[in-house]
Structures are given as structure tokens and as C-alpha cells.
Amino acid sequence: MKAAVLHEFGAVPRYEDFPDPVAGDGEVEGEVKAVAVENVDKAVAAGSHFAARQFLPELPAIVVFDGIGTLPDGTLVGFSQPRPPYGALAERTVVPVRNTTPAPEEIDPAVAVVISSAVTGFAIKTAAGFIPGETVLVQGATGVAGRLAVQVARLLGAAHIVATGRDDDAPAEVVGLGADAVINTAVGRA
Question: pTM for the full model?
Fold first, then answer.
């Protein structure tokens, strides 16, 4: 199969042949339909994400750890955390069965794959029961979903938004998106 294969951290993944995945106990092989390459995927490939070596313990490996695909029976699913070295940026991947969730058949896989970034923002109002004028804490505000959550909280009428994140370069940008304060939660690496 063809895949985006990373040979060393910090390098650009190469489009090349890679051995087909084979599902083991508790796993399922699926055909990948759509993938959104997010900032976390880029940080993992660069080796700069704090858990890069947990996500990709051995190289070469296929990058990206979630997407939309079809199971062998044709069911459209969202999936996450493929078993290394099989990431999502490939024709096929293998994931734990528990890491698949049925996706609505009527939605285009390319649309479905980006909806997860919006879910965080929607949860502020629905799951959290947000009322305008309240204070909102956004954990991980320096990531894609967190930045979206800051903007949604501001649009919904948050009186005060406190954001946290590990990216040393992002606080000013997150404040520009609507946060009142940003707390850097990065810890030194050994």
C-alpha cells in the first residue's frame, strides 16, 4: 500500500510503499477515506511533541493518528490511535476496535474528519451548560481545538477566558483570539 512514511524525526514524510497492516486480537483493519493533518501530527513528526516517541516508538512509521475510514463490512467510522507503525496517512491502517466510532453515512468523510475540532467549542454551550457572563477555562488552548474553543467562548459571551497550553510561542496569539490570560503549562524535558 502507499503511505506517508517518516524515516527520522524532523524529516518530511515520504510517499512510498509500506507493508499492509494485519489486524491482531481486539483490532480491526480499515480503509482510510479522509485524514486531517493537525498541528499535533506535525509536532509528533518533528519530534518536538512531548509524547512523539510514545506515538511513534520506532521508525520508519506512518504519520497521523486519527481519521475517517471504512471497516471490512463497509461501515464508515471515525478512528484514532492506530497501532504503530501504522498511522492514518495511508491507504489502510489498523486500530483497536474500541477506538472506532460509527460516522453518519450521509456526511462526506472529508467533512467528518474536521468536525472533531469543532466539537470542543460546541461542548461549551451544550455539555458544560455555559451561561453568558461566566468565566471559562480552556485547557490546551494553544492547539487547534483549543484556539477554536477560545473563540467560541468569546462569541458566546464569556466574561473572562483563562487559557492554558504548552506552546511558548502561542500566548500572544491566543490572547489575540479572545483569551484574557494564558498560563504556560510546559515542563522542562530531561
Answer: 0.68
